[in-house]
Fold each of these.
Amino acid sequence: MSTRARARVAPDADADADADAERQGAFRPREEGPTDLRLVPPALAAWATAAVTLHAPPGWAVTTVAASVLVAVVLLAAGSRLLPARRRPAEGARVTAHAVAATALCVAAAAGSAGLHGADVRRGPVPELAREYARVVAEVEVTADPRLTRPRVSGSHTAPVSVLIEAEVRRVERAGTTARATRAPVLLIVDPGDRKRTATAEQQGSPWPALLPSTRLRVEARLAPAREGGDRFAAVLRVDGRGGPHAVGGPSAPQRLAGRLRAGLREATEDLPQDPRALLPGLVVGDTARVTPELDQAFRETDLTHTLAVSGANFTILLALLLGPPGLAQRAERRGLAPRLGISLRATAVLGAVLSLAFVVVCRPDPSVLRAAACGSVALLALATGRRRSLVPALATAVLLLVLYDPWLARSYGFLLSVLATGALLTLAPRWSEALRRHGVPPRIAEALAAAGAAQALCAPVVAVLSARVSLVAIPCNLLAEAALAPATVLGFLALAAAPVAMPLAEAVAWCAGWPAGWIARVARTGAAMPGAGVDWPGSWAGAAALGAVTVAVLLVGRRLLRHPWWCAACALLLVLVVVQPRPLVRTITGWPPPDWRMVMCDVGQGDALVLAAGEGSGVVVDAGPDPESVDRCLRSLGVTRVPLVVLTHFHADHVAGLTGVLRGREVGGIGTTALEEPADQAAAVRGAAAAAGLPVTRIVAGERRRTGDLSWEVVWPPPGDHPVAEGPNDASVAMLVRTGGLRLLLLGDLEPPAQRALARSPAARHLAGVDVLKVAHHGSAYQDPGLVSLAAPRLALISTGEDNSYGHPAPGTVEALRAQGAAVLRTDRDGALAVVPGTGGDGEVEVEVARH
């Protein structure tokens, strides 16, 4: 009896001590037992069951439900206290039986929910009509915010921007048949009426991207089957976007309110600089319509894309503002807004619930936002209690409920990353933080490092599957961005709330929020610009397993290194060198770029991008390729920071779409182009990029001569005015004869045989005989003029083309004809980037350095 009395008194004494410490403003962490993992197996079992059952045959779900329920009943009966005492199992066995029974019931529930959701994709008239590619009139309800496809280079053109809208078909009618009621999830693809339009639909003032969820539309569309496999849509509806949407029912009141708030935030940020203007709506409500492809790529390279999506971090920041720092929410000195305003704990809980509801409404009540609210609620539990033992069960409960509510989350990479990141923060981060503190790292720095490192360790394998790349700058970039994320989010939400009632105030708050938002953008751009920002990695689950093994090995080695500060410093220095890659060190190790390079043909895939050396750190760029990242990477590897002139030989996308990569962070003197501005959309895009950078655009014609340092060139095509053979953009390409380092280089753009023959008969032809290097026209296509090739008689022929391209470039006949003229032929699809270096033997000898893949 006395032992029991002492057991009751000890906690009371500890509580009195805690209370005394609290009154003195001290903080004593609550002692906790081992982590409660009982809900983890049911949550994981439900997750796996939902993922498998969604696309299983219809009878699979019924069989799984029946079998799981039967197993649960048997186990519960076996462990029941109603059995005679002599037949009851031991206490441990009964607990195990109950746990397995609970898991079986969760499996049954997940199988039933997934079976019903999967049936929505297969049943009804929509899938049948989709298999026939039928043209229908359908009444659909929008279920998510419309989003825009990114401009994509396809050969010489840029694919037009389409609007993607998730919706549900409520009624469908085929010509000559009766309308049928149904309920099938579909994806609307709204194509622009003019296939040459490539500007975003937002810029064109299209009404389609402005549609709000819950709006009902009547559309004429052609049905098509959805992608096989894990797609959650019963069909795809292709809609002609030339006519505006025909609404038959307006959005609901909450969606109208959310739409007004989101539109107010966009208006409040209208006058901010480009990056904050694009980022702030994304940070606050996940509106990424203004984020450029280049900025989006920078966030992907640095693993900061989670800041552009509505995540639990947004919700947690708002609740922290309300409740205060972790561990203090239930103490007398808690420091949030609620206690400072004299609001009780119960009223604070109600306010937290109202804030949660408002967050879901404004950010759209779709599954991704609900996932964010659930994960944010787990963090709320940490803020409210300061206890970590209850957090893993809370996360497991959130996973279980969300998977039962929307089984499609079981196949979502975003959901997987959210759970892994939250789990890392709850399990690994506290231990790592404690270990770092034991080795003398200040507490706040230890917590930040542990949180970023734990999340990266668990999420990196999944990210590698999605991007086939591992970021080496993710942890430092996330640490630097984290400092600005909270003020940007809080100020962004204040601007969101103020916009409907006081736009000047909202604009002022948005201006303040633009500073931390701009900082996050600079962190992303700076990190992505590092030469060693990431390494390529196999984009498969085998690659993910390999990365996981590497991560475990690094962690095991890291534990030992913590005991040796000098070794830690050496490893950190090595990592910095790998990421920064100082040019002298890289040149010493790899030999690239060669010290005296004169021209480099960049490896940009199926396109053209050349750099002519114009002095230390300076180069004239001829064409920019199809991808900004590829040409930017090439210029960075060459150390080119100044570009006196960008020459765009013609306006096909595989030559000009990468222009923004050339302009990124460099001093550019101007842009020279051909006079034929076709295709018109690409010419407009070039002029838009030039205007944004404040650069002049001039026309280049034959006869022009320019010099910069020891680099000089003469334009030999196209002639001034209209020319009878210049029937298209290729024949209007700018062709140049370049002299540098004692070498003569002939760059032919994409000239076709008619223009090549005219060039061979032009006055400039006398200068073209016996060149050292020929940049072969049109990626080495079969359409070449033998007369011009014979006249040029190059020693070296370079072909820029993409690996395994669908055009058959370079044509075998072209390669053989060049070799027959005595030329050595090199091509970027096999040899990588190519550097032309003057030989040391005199007499115009040519050497070529090759950077291989």
Note: The CA atoms of residues 236 and 419 lie 30 Å apart.
Amino acid sequence: MEKVTTKAQELLDEAEKGFGFVPNVLKELAVSPETLDLYLSGTKIMNDTVLDEREKQMVILAVSTYNGCGYCKAAHGMVAKKAGASHGDIEAVKNKTPLKNERDQHLVDATFHTLEKKGRLSADDLKEFEDWGIDRRQVFEIVGIIALKTITNYANHIAHTDLDDVFKQG
């Protein structure tokens, strides 16, 4: 790994306070302090959404599944469980099988559909989402989550990031 700048070290120190440790993916992102800052700042901003924590984690799992990121699937599977998602629904997202929680199923479907269409959602798509109880604000929150998770998904693909021991428990 390349040398960490002072700015990157400050960001890692702040992340450690929040997580209790520094996840390996953040250590990888520290090579680019600007990208690390973008990810951490964006994540902090997205903490204040209308989607609750369980819902956000299910969307994150869907993005990470779509992008094939084993690191993020493991990490966010654990976080989703802590946020109240069932083990069965977490595994269903990872395996692209039906979920028992209907709301989560709709969010996952909306996420996969948005990813597959690269955001080019039709009026019919948006109407279907609305029928599922997913309004325009929530659609844009899904887009925000897609953007942030793509940063770490791609970083993990590039760096071949080792999974942290804490995420191996899930």
Note: Residues 64 and 70 are 7 Å apart (CA to CA).
Amino acid sequence: MTLMAETVMEAAPGFYLVTKDRGFAVHISASADHLHLVRDLAGKTLADAGVSEETAENVQLVASELVASAVRACGDLVPLVVEVETDAADDGVWVRVHDPDPDHLPQRSGVQMDDAFAESGRGLSLIDYLAPDWDVARTPIGKQVRARLPYAGG
């Protein structure tokens, strides 16, 4: 499955999109509006690539949770890079979120999604469920959280 890089969107304040052969990378200042644009872009990009609606929705959820985690660690309007890319082996989709804080690393919380008393922590439990092998890597300019979602039903 190959996605075609058709355009590079002009830079707008807090939002710059670069399309890739298998997906996209978008540089954003974290905000509700930009997250909405990223979710829409992921859905359209994956639909155009023939990825199932269920997988696309899972990717949108994971991207949202990773962006929310970065905002909790770094604050509103943090500069982020969000990447969505189909796996070169055609067996899943990568979601990567890069933020500038190398010290606040997300950790598996152990909170169960059906825990009625949990006040937080369900986001990472959701990521554990949808992308159980997610990991975090420190980079020269912060950290990147990487999650590979298998295609739904596969």
Note: The two ends are 15 Å apart (CA to CA).
Amino acid sequence: MNAVGEFRFSHPSISLRWAGATHPGMRRTVNEDSVFASFPVFVVADGMGGHASGDVASALAIEAFRGLKGRTLADVACVEASLADAFELVRERSLGQPIGGTTLSGAVLVDVDGVAHWLILNIGDSRTYLFAEGALQQVTVDHSVVQELVEMGALQQADARRHPNRNVITRALGAGERQPADVWLRPAERGQRLLVCSDGLTGEVEDAEIAEILADVASPAAAAALLLRRALDAGAPDNVSVVVLDVDAVALADEDLLDTHVHSLDDTIPREVRQ
């Protein structure tokens, strides 16, 4: 398997390191996942539809966020506009030819009164986790049949991963009636680690194992590679995508930025990792 690249970027309000990887899995020849990881945007889309080109739907959803890429924080209004564009791009394309739907999950760094915050968004069953102070929290809530059963008390969370309807989602882009994405706003804090992933990871690797890897592996690139490896070793019948990002510092002083090397932002788009 090819090495996973690690990237770094420092802004006057925050310093980050991150890595991302995507793989078609062990049973599929087409990767319908799309990933975009470039400051200040870190998102994963999991396309659905197979012959109906779920890969097209996921790529269109990601395309709506490319305009946020740059060397400044985004703002909430721009992220909301990108979400609206993602819905519209998928809808317009579906009018001309049938395409599949797609999930969308991730985090965008936004400026709130001069302070960096994570605007975390989700539609579907891809996930965004926050790992801080040794604890893993799933910030997003799956839009899925099994999640609804769990919330009703009809299914135990431990049994959700084995339920026959575990892959049936209740919201997506390009899935008929437009339903809103969920959003959360969290302050960015030093020591935070975020994980954005498609269900190709969470369907094969338990949260406890994910937490152990995020706790034990310091490098975002090494953590992303190991998470991907664990999913593949488990059989990975679905595409697998992961983005791991670390907050190294917040509210940096100017002198702290002088010795920072910045990779070309165009190079931060994860390439597909193959065995």
Note: Residues 76-96 form the longest helix (21 residues).
